[in-house]
From TrEMBL:
Keywords: Decarboxylase, Lyase, Pyrimidine biosynthesis. It holds the Pfam family OMPdecase. This is Orotidine-5'-phosphate decarboxylase. The lineage of its organism: Bacteria, Pseudomonadati, Bacteroidota, Flavobacteriia, Flavobacteriales. It catalyses: orotidine 5'-phosphate + H(+) = UMP + CO2.
């Protein structure tokens, strides 16, 4: 999917919400555990209840890898369900990959070709040759970690090297890489104070913004400097939406949380 198509969808739905599908078998309603694939059943119910309120879904692969081969099968069933029944959705594999070039090519094949995601998150630490194999895929996006939402982001990402913070160097340098038009960036909602500076470096890029909800980030704070003329933001919320209830009404309660965020986005867009 192109960013233009993503923008069109955002404007139609008046929503730039991305729902995180981070399924933990200890947190999902117990009645689902009797199903052959509880993870998929949970995802299917969440997707069916929220699809009109968001434009993207982001499974974090850790929550699937943790369950071995069954977890991968649940991930595959989830992405196949989205691609078959909701093909207009933007899909993000939050996998935070990146390795030497030939290995990165294999990661890119796994997420773009085999699984059929629109995008994958990638760590920039190993540099250009670890990221360009992902960028080589047309109409697919590589979402580079720039300034993450966690406290540990201050360990390295905001430290100065040659008078410039590391996260700024990631943004500046990555713009020079081949097919850099296929880049997006992760910037945490908990780092709202940094969006003004970030937009000076990447005014036109889409930013994936996790950290609204359970991590305390605020939608309005992010939007103040994060929005651009193409909207340019995908705001992710996972736990606050999908675990709004642990009862049989979990999908209904997830929908209520998604409505709350969508209405706030509609207000901001108007
Ligand atoms: O900087 C980052 C990068 C990724 N994440 C991921 O996003 C979701 C957030 O989940 P919540 O439940 O809404 O807190 C999760 O998959 C993280 O691994 C992030 O939080 N921060």
């Amino acid at each position: 999917m192109t960013t233009k198509e993503l923008e069109i969808q955002i404007r139609q739905k008046k929503s730039f919400l991305c729902i995180g599908l981070d399924v933990d078998l200890h947190k999902i309603p117990s009645h689902l555990l009797t199903f052959d694939d509880p993870i998929f059943e949970f995802n299917k119910s969440i997707i069916d209840a929220t699809h009109h309120l968001c434009v993207a879904y982001k499974p974090n692969t850790a929550f699937y890898e943790a369950y071995g081969i069954k977890g991968w099968q649940s991930l595959k069933k989830t992405i196949d369900y989205l691609n078959e029944f909701y093909p207009e959705f933007y899909t993000i594999a939050d996998a935070k990959r990146g390795d030497i070039g030939n290995t990165s090519s294999m990661y890119a094949k796994a997420f773009f070709e085999d699984l059929g995601f629109d995008s994958v998150t990638v760590a920039p630490y190993m540099g250009k040759d670890s990221v360009e194999p992902f960028l080589a895929f047309p109409d697919k996006h590589t979402i580079l970690l720039a300034l993450t939402s966690n406290e540990g982001a201050f360990d390295f990402q905001t430290k100065k090297i040659d008078k410039n913070e590391l996260y700024k160097q990631v943004l500046e340098t990555s713009k020079t890489w081949k097919n850099s038009e296929n880049l997006m960036y992760v910037v945490g909602a908990t780092k709202a104070d940094y969006f003004k500076e970030i937009r000076k470096i990447v005014p036109n890029s889409f930013l994936l913004v996790p950290g609204v909800g359970a991590q305390g980030g605020k939608l309005e704070d992010v939007c103040e400097f994060g929005l651009n003329s193409q909207i340019g933001l995908l705001i992710n919320s996972s736990r606050e939406i999908i675990y709004a209830s642990s009862g049989k009404d979990f999908a209904e309660k997830a929908q209520e949380q998604a409505i709350r965020l969508q209405l706030a986005m509609e207000k901001i867009l108007s």
